[in-house]
Amino acid sequence: MHAPRSLFAVLATAALVAAQQTRQDAPDTLRVVMTTKVAGKPVARLDANDKETGSRRWTDRVIEWQFGGNTFAASASARRALARIAKDPASLRESPDQPGHKELLPIVIEPDAGVCWAELLTCFDVANEAGFPDWRLLGFDGCYVVPKSVEVPVLEGGALIVPRAVFNEPDDAPAAGRPVFHVRQDGTVVRDGRTLFRWRAGEPDDLTTLKNELLEIRAQMQKAEKLRKRGPDAAEVIDVPVLVCADKWCEWRDVRRLLQTLCAPEIGFWKLEFGVADLEMEPGDKDFGKMR
């Protein structure tokens, strides 16, 4: 099920990600905090032939949602509460773009570092289903965000599976020259089969190879006249999207690391596409093969 393009144009344009910082609720936003309360248990991920893929899936995880002074331990109860807030006239604000017009206040999603990528994508869906077209992910500034239903949601022999998302666009017409990056469960970043970053416990992140790759991409985009000036400071950004296919069990800290590097001023990506699936593609999951 795909969101209509006209609707998703609104959703994606509205998904401007605020700068990462600790802050109090602003009067014109609704802050949704996601916290990992129970990390769950790892189980070996098997492929279609019941062979281990080297990756894992998790069971019995508990994510706590906090907003509006209340705490919720399930996405369904969070969605119902958000739907009630969406119907409350007190949740309307003056539109900054259309004087005299009122609109729902935006949601600012703040996940902790251990929230998994699939859980974060669920929050996007919950916000949209509850009637909030304007959601923002704390951590990035001024990015255009679109979940894309990719043709191949199971990658690297089943070791990487993208999360399911109800609200998405089909990835049937990718932009010419769009780079694609994979993020594995352990935080490894791969492009075209080449490892660009590998996380190592207890060591500082060495992003040299990844940054050099991105600087080369920027140089190619500049040569192809794919840069444009954007924003009040007229910064030169890359006017071609980038597709990030992260495993559904990647921790947010690992996806965030890549996104921050992509969107750094010296690189300049601002159109972020996230690879997702229409159906649950995790073998062994109770919702395997289901859309919702």
Give structural notes:
The chain has helices at 5-14, 75-87, 117-129, 208-223, 252-262, and strands at residues 30-38, 41-46, 52-59, 62-67, 70-72, 92-94, 102-104, 107-111, 135-137, 144-149, 154-155, 160-161, 169-170, 180-183, 189-191, 194-197, 227-230, 235-238, 242-246, 271-276. By secondary structure, the protein is α/β, with parallel strands linked by helices. It has one domain (5-276). A seven-stranded mixed beta sheet has the order 13-10-20-19-14-15-16. It has a five-stranded mixed beta sheet with strand order 5-4-1-8-9, covered by helices on one side. Helix 2 packs parallel to helix 3 (117-129). The longest helix is centred in the last third of the chain and has 16 residues, at 208-223. The radius of gyration is 19 Å and the shape is globular.
